[in-house]
Every structure is written in structure tokens, then in C-alpha cells.
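All the exercises in this workshop are built on plain-text protein records. A record pairs a protein's sequence with a compact description of its fold. Read left to right, the C-alpha cells trace the chain's path through space. Once this layout is familiar, the rest of the handout is easier to follow. Here is such a record, shown just as it appears in the course material:
>
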Amino acid sequence: MMESAPGLTVDELAARAGVTVRTIRFYSTRGLLPPPEIGPRRVGRYGPDHLSRLALIEELQHQGMTLSAIERYLAQLPPDLSAQDLAIHRALVAGWIPDQAEDATLEQLERRAGRELTEEDLDRLAAMNVLVRTEDPGVYRVDPGLLHLGARLLDVPIALETILAARTVVIEHTRSAARELSRLFKDEVWEPYRDGGPDAAEMARMKSLSAHMQPMVVQALVTAFQRSMKEELREWLGTGGRDGHDSGDGRDGREAGAAGARPGGGDGGGATGAG
């Protein structure tokens, strides 16, 4: 795992991110990527933050944003976002675009992951929804933006059964939340039409309203989850407020601002997914 210090050359970064070296250098000159750390022999070294930022840039491009729009968009993000913060942000951006999963062979997966992948590794990545096995045993459907994040979690000592159980918990609770929120939305929007259905114009307006509400709902869910997890961890670890932080330390607000920033701004790219 590559948490403490950058360790990728520009060629390795390009292979992991699925882009060309020329693209990385171009992004760097435009200020879309932070500079690498310079190591021995004046060789630039890149880390997980660069991978996460490249994944976010890719999602914004899928939204149809121009490079100039992406520059302005990234300039609004806090400068000290970690790879994990960028991953959350990227996941929210990806929620409003069509599925970008790609077919990949095991060799291609290993090149993007930067490591050999055993059957157990593949099972763990599948449990994390990073990839899906296809009818062809040699081909996998993979989310490229999540692959490098999932690969970094392969060395975390968590049993596959625990990952599957966690996924079940998340799916069950998110479906329950979605069901209740949909009921509230339906009751509010459809109430005026109890005696007759809406016309085509009203239906279009409702769909537009739903699409605009989805990013705000997801932002609220993510923010609430982050705060709840922090409180649970503090209680579990017995730190309370002794670490100098509490739920009002400003960190949650910064994370919410980064994670919930609406992609697209005025330069294209709206809420298109079904959330």
C-alpha cells in the first residue's frame, strides 16, 4: 500500500490511471495535477492523491466539462483534500452520469492495479463492487476509477465475509432511506393530483425537480454518514473529545462542501443519473 509517501514514476502513474504520460504532463502544465515529489536522481514520484485526482478529472470529462471548466471546478476544492476525500467526491460526481464500467482482462486489471491479483483478491474486489465477473471467465466489468482504491484496500486485514456483511448493511439501509425519501417526495408532489394525473408539462417539471434534488439528498446522506461514523469511532476508541476535535471542528463542513459540490456548475453537466 502506498499511504505515507509517493512511489510511482510518471510511467507507472499513467499505467495505473489508464492515461498516457503525455496526458499527465499536459494536466500538470494546466495545473490540474499537483507537482510530484522529487526523489533521488531528480525523478518525480506520484502518490494516491494523484490517482484520485485523475479519476475525478475523468468523471468531470464524462460530464462534458471542458478543461477550462474543470480547472475552475478543481480550484474551488480545498487544497488539502486527501485521496479518500477525492474518492468520495469522485463517487458523488459519478452518481450523476451513465455507468462507465469497462471490460478488462486479468492482465489489464493487474496493470491498472499495479499488482498481481489472486482469486481471493478478485473476490474481495467483487465484494466491494469494484468489479463484476462476466460470462467470459477471462473478462471482468470494472469501474476504473474505483479499481486503484479497491486495490489499496486488499492489504487491509478484513475478512471477505466482513466485507460482504458490510455491503449488505449498506444496501439494506440505503434502500430503506431511498424508499422513505421517495415516499415523502411522492406525497408532496403528487398530493395536488389526487383527483387526476399531471399533464405532460407537469411530468417534465417533476422529473427536472427530482434530478435537481438528487445531488442535495446524496450530499446530506454522505455528510450525515461521515459525522455518524466519526462519533461511532470516537465512542468505540474511547477518545471522546480528547483528540481536540468535535463535530463542530469545521472538518465536516469542509468535507460536505467538497463531497457535495454540484458538478457542472454553469459549464455543462447536470444531474443525469437515477441516484
In short: Confidence is low (pLDDT under 50) at residues 1-5, 241-275. The radius of gyration is 21 Å.
